[in-house]
Amino acid sequence: MGQLDKVNILLVDDEESILQFLELGLGNEGATVKTTTNGIEAITIADQFKPHIVILDVMMPGLDGFETCQQLRASGNDMAIIMLTAKDDVSDRVNGLRLGADDYLVKPFSFSELLARIHARIRNQFPMLLSAVRYGEFTVDDRRKEIMQHDEVLELSPTEYELLKLLLMNHGSVLSKAIILDKVWGYDFGGEQNIVEVYVRSLREKLGDREHRIIRTLRGAGYRMDL
Description:
41% of the residues lie in helices and 21% in strands. The chain contains eight helices and twelve strands. It is an alpha/beta fold and 227 residues long. The relative contact order is 0.10. It starts with 7 loop residues before the first strand and ends with a strand. The protein folds into two domains: 8-128, Rossmann fold (3-Layer(aba) Sandwich); 133-225, Winged helix-like DNA-binding domain superfamily/Winged helix DNA-binding domain (Arc Repressor Mutant, subunit A), CATH 1.10.10. It has a five-stranded parallel beta sheet with strand order 2-1-3-4-5, with helices on both faces.
């Protein structure tokens, strides 16, 4: 089973190459995926398909992403909308969020980042779909606040759980200490950044990662989890 089993995702983008790439990647994660290149068709498909997640491009001919987002929200169907844009413009992001978007990604983006955003939206709006998510040898059960390695439950503190979950969700991507502090400890954390090193060291001991092959340190950049 994939990480996104039981999740319906609608992709809306006028660039066929992006649609094909995302359809393949999300399909491999277990999602049921439908695609369209225009906003008008997206509204019709959404009404019948009932997607949990809509990945919606801003710049499309005819009905653009903003108008499509507004009409999708007006339909009353429960869905999370992640908008894609080719430019990092604050006014665009504000406009999209005002019209009902839940999140925003600027092109080009990594597939792992999109996947993390999708998981975040599902946890917030459809937690029943992600009772347990598998990442290689690890399984994260967010409802039970448990992480298993090789089907054995790890003995983790609440902070260790949140840190390991963050690393797993973003596996393959480098996370800086600043990002980890913000996501795990909160933006207003007033302590020292070396707290991250302390917790990473503790996790490595519990994972049997003596040679740092699972949680890798990239000097001057941060940490990356390899599965």
